[in-house]
Specification:
Elements lengths: L15 H12 L4 H22 L12 H7 L23 H18 L11 H12 L24
């Protein structure tokens, strides 16, 4: 059975109490500057708690070195440079310095792993899982995973 779209009916997946609290904070602001300050204050509270008051055992959020934090916040992190190193392999112009950075990264990987070839790609979440499962299992293999509420990651179940 299909449900007819009713534009007067609102759909919300987020916690209504949290959204109401956010609306109240923003409604109390008298300018966009105050709204910005409210967001920055929330970010600072998170940084204080996550960075200084708790021990986070979630692997993608593991503590990083000051160098890694500086790299993650660098301007280059907001740039697109699809393709491979070199001007003839890029889809976007203006990647001269990104090519330099990525070439250094590739050469460091070769040294670290004593390899003749290396490549780097950002891998996260389900794509990371897929890479590991593909490398370490065969179709039909059974795997064990910790449930999400206890620190595990989502796993697609079913037959392959």
């Amino acid at each position: 059975m299909f449900e007819v779209h009713d534009p007067t009916r609102q759909f919300e997946v987020h916690d209504p109490a949290m959204l109401a609290q956010a609306r109240a904070v923003l409604d109390a602001c008298s300018s966009p500057q105050e709204m910005q300050e409210a967001v920055l204050a929330a970010v600072a509270r998170n940084e204080e708690w996550r960075g200084k008051q708790c021990l986070n055992l979630l692997a993608p959020e593991a503590p990083t070195s000051p160098t890694v934090r500086a790299l993650l916040s660098a301007e280059v992190g907001t740039r697109a440079a699809e393709g491979h190193i070199g001007p003839v392999n890029r889809w976007f112009a203006g990647t001269k310095h990104i090519d330099e950075i990525e070439a250094l990264c590739v050469e460091l990987l070769k040294r670290a792993f004593r390899a003749r070839y290396a490549d780097h790609r950002l891998v996260a979440s389900m794509i990371g899982n897929l890479a590991v499962y593909t490398a370490l299992t065969e179709p039909g293999d059974v795997i064990m995973s910790i449930a999400q509420p206890y620190g595990g990651h989502s796993v697609r179940s079913g037959r392959t």
